[in-house]
Specification:
The chain is α+β, with helices and mostly antiparallel strands. Helices cover about 30% and strands about 25% of the residues. β17 and β18 form a beta hairpin. The N terminus is likely disordered.
Length: about 500
């Protein structure tokens, strides 16, 4: 069986989307500010947001802020499609990635409210992968199911995915249908799509309704194009994520639709107040230590202010942030066509207070957490809030520096050697084709499209859009195998012609 990392490589190699590197591009377009948005907090945050977007080389970003259950401000920045100069707007469609987990958690918690499910029920009742009754449903929701269940937090989307089988068995319906009937249709989230493949074949998902399928196809025309930042200054088209729909990821949405979802959450249209309070309380370990998540949501107590949040992060191409400050009835949703939104904070740590966008939002809209500020430096002069500014800006600078440091240097490849690499290679799930044109190599990912491969040494090559090393293995003068290496894990393919 492939490891987690190997499956990630395979998922990209075998998905139905192309990976084509674009050249250097610039994304400076900003949608005009909505009329009447004279709130000085919005003005200040908007300026900081766009500054950080440009520093992180995010081509397109859409944002919405809600206060007291109403939309305070929404706007798009940059481009949903750089090459075609299509601006990002509040109606641009993005992958939510792991923000999808909050929807799945609500479905599970609804069943618990209805008495149809016990969160203390063993997962072994639903999957033979669990050999005893130690792992409970609550452990999947809180990411505490590994090792000794309930002992420690370990974020693992693959474990969370077991919730899909539970939901489908209890509801007797496919998970996609549950998303449509619980969220998209009742909340009039008419620009959201339950997976990019849902409208490929009307017969497959006819249960969702002919009108819905027709609308999904139209909505997909507004699907943002995904990009990644290469450290020598290039913003490259990175290729779309796999087209599947999971409990962990797969929902596509806009910030306007996410505002509707957020309003329903806050108005207790989806969960009772006491259930939501439990979901937004840190899960306690077996030794009563608070852990980073509640039930399907991250929970951070920052200087006496509770932050409830979740990221979406595809690795490349898309990332998202859903941040709530319940006591102040404030919500921020950011959706982007770059990984940088949710990627940079990992340079310092996983918590949301290491994210420059989140830190800016908290300090602007909840100034009581910020202590006194140095007007010249625009950062707090004392108190823990200074850590938010320091850590998040440090994370930003480290991320940019790391991208530059990881920018691998390409060297010329002997055309005769390149020609020996051309051919077809049998990987675990499909055959990939390497082609040579005038000494340059390309690989079809997927078949029929291609991404350029660059040489680092005569036998080691790389892609600019993925942190992979491709090694062509020889026996004598004959190339016999192609290895894909990522973070110590290898997927190999035998050359078949």
């Amino acid at each position: 069986m492939l490891s987690h990392v190997s499956r990630a490589i395979a998922a990209t190699l075998f998905s139905g989307f192309m990976l084509i590197g674009a050249g250097i591009v610039h994304a400076q377009a900003v949608e005009p500010a909505p009329a009447g948005s004279a709130d000085p907090r919005v003005d200040r945050f908007r300026e900081q947001l766009d500054t950080y977007r440009e520093r992180l080389k995010i081509p397109g970003l859409s944002a919405v802020i809600l206060e007291d259950g109403e939309v305070l401000w929404t706007q798009g920045f940059g481009y949903a499609d750089v090459e075609r100069r299509i601006p990002a707007t509040p109606d641009t469609l993005y992958h939510l990635a792991s923000v999808t987990k909050t929807f799945t958690a609500i479905l599970i918690l609804q069943l618990a409210e209805q008495g149809k499910l016990d969160l203390d029920e063993p997962v072994s009742h639903y999957s033979a992968d669990f050999k005893d009754d130690s792992v409970k449903i609550k452990h999947l929701l809180s990411h505490t199911s590994e090792g000794t269940p309930g002992e420690k937090f370990n974020y693992n989307p693959e474990r969370f995915e077991y919730l899909k089988a539970i939901l489908e068995k209890k509801a007797g319906k496919p998970l996609r249908q549950q998303f449509v009937e619980t969220f998209l249709d009742p909340l009039a989230m008419r620009d959201s799509v339950p997976g990019p493949d849902v409208a490929d074949n009307d017969t497959t998902w006819a249960v969702l309704g002919e009108a819905n399928l027709a609308r999904y196809r139209k909505d997909l025309e507004k699907f943002a194009k995904p990009y990644t930042y290469w450290g020598d200054g290039e913003i490259l088209y990175s290729g779309y994520p796999p087209r599947d729909f999971w409990a962990s990821a797969g929902l596509l949405s806009t910030v306007r639709d996410m505002a509707k979802y957020d309003q329903a959450v806050d108005r207790h249209e989806l969960l009772k107040a006491q259930t939501l309070a439990r979901a937004w309380t840190p899960f306690l370990s077996n030794t009563s230590q608070p852990l980073p998540q509640g039930l399907g949501w991250y929970v951070t107590d920052y200087r006496g202010t509770r932050l409830v949040w979740h990221y979406g992060h595809w690795g490349t191409g898309f990332s998202a942030m859903y941040l709530k400050i319940p006591a102040q009835r404030l919500t921020l949703v950011l959706l982007t066509n770059s990984e940088a939104l949710a990627d940079h904070h990992y340079q310092v740590g996983e918590d949301i207070t290491n994210d420059v966008f989140a830190c800016s939002f908290v300090n602007v809209f909840v100034p009581e957490v910020a202590s006194d500020t140095d007007a010249a430096a625009d950062i707090p002069t004392s108190g823990p809030a200074r850590d938010c500014e320091r850590s998040s800006r440090t994370a930003l600078e480290k991320w940019i520096a790391s991208r530059h440091a990881k920018a691998r240097k390409a060297v010329p490849l002997d055309p005769k050697l390149a020609a020996t690499y051309a051919g077809r290679y049998q990987l675990p799930h499909r055959v990939v084709t390497v082609t040579e044109e005038r000494g340059r190599l390309y690989i079809d990912v997927p078949e029929g499209d291609r991404s350029e491969v660059f040489a680092e040494t005569p036998t080691q090559l790389f892609l600019k859009i993925r942190p992979w090393t491709l090694t062509f293995v020889k026996e004598g003068s004959k190339v016999v195998r192609l290895d894909f290496l990522d973070n110590g894990e290898v997927v190999s393919g035998k050359k078949v012609d």
